[in-house]
Amino acid sequence: MIKIVDSSHVERALAILGISAGDAMGSTNGLVSPPGKRPLFSFGVISDVQYADIPDGHSFHGVPRYYRHSIHVLQRAVQRWNSHQNLNFVINFGDIVDGQCPPGQSLDAVKKVNNEFQKINGPVYHLIGNHCLYNLPRDKLLPLLKIPGLNGLAYYDFSPRPEYRIVVLDGYDISAIGWPQGHSKTLQALEFLEKKNPNSNKNSPAGLLGLERRFVMFNGAVGREQLEWLDGTLQDATKLKQKVIVCCHLPLDAVASSQEALLWNYDEVMNVIHQYNCVKACLSGHEHSGGYSVDSHGVHHRSFEAALECPPDTDAYGHIDVFDDRLLLFGTDRIQSTEMCFNP
């Protein structure tokens, strides 16, 4: 069963039954928990806050961006999450501060947003995105966000319950952003872009066709060592009979994302994932309009709508209830609620 819920249809159905949407137990944007079943665990999700103390602007494609308002979206999310009695943790899918943030304000802006995350009653797990790295180098960013990766890398895993494992990937492992100028990973990324993108502005996909449009500087790749780590982690999860949720700032499926937002080597990552049956979902940010798909191996892909693009008094955050046979994403406002069912 594959479902993205249109809340207006559900509200009309509830009205016919004489039930208000607010009275429907466990419903947000029209999704309702299975009767009589309690989730194994629940966690909050938000992506692309991209706060900056600057006037509103627009994306390259003309989409409005509300830089000062985005922190209010996060504040309301924290209030909602803290009122949820059974939320186990929160995952931030990256880009907490925007690249337009004035350079002298970067550290203070990151600290300001991070302070809001620290008000959450429970653990917070951060992913890094390109806008994070525009503002702070890895050696400052990772300790500030308490990201447990080693040697400046931001990939790690944890098990909130014996039945499940969360795997967090570092999509900017190979990247021209965030590493020192002469670092081997920077040089590798620049050499790669020189081969793949003929434009003088490597952030421009102009002239690139189809999936090649992902070869731009604001994306990155998972390196060889991380791919080997992922393979070993999925082997271990398989032995332990765990289901796995993979998280990455950059999307891993072209149907759940625009071509420009994909991880450079998403195909290599998915080749590893598809060798195992344990991975049930891949969750991501970066694609501000959001997206959802189920790939040929039955893996669900969900990229989350950006908090940055919420007009005042609207929101984009949610929480996921995790069951043995499904994930239920309860979205707020711009985030569409999504039911992701799979074989238990």
From TrEMBL:
* InterPro entries referenced in this protein's UniProt entry, alphabetically: Calcineurin-like_PHP (IPR004843), MPP_ADPRM (IPR041869)
> At the top level of its lineage, which domain of life is listed?
Eukaryota
Matching entries from CDD domains are given as: MPP_Nbla03831 (cd07396)
Q: Which Pfam families match?
A: Metallophos
Which residue ranges does the record assign to the Calcineurin-like phosphoesterase domain? 42-289
Which keywords appear in this protein's UniProt record, sorted alphabetically? Answer: Hydrolase, Metal-binding, Zinc
- One MF term from GO for this chain? manganese ion binding
The protein depicted here goes by the name Calcineurin-like phosphoesterase domain-containing protein
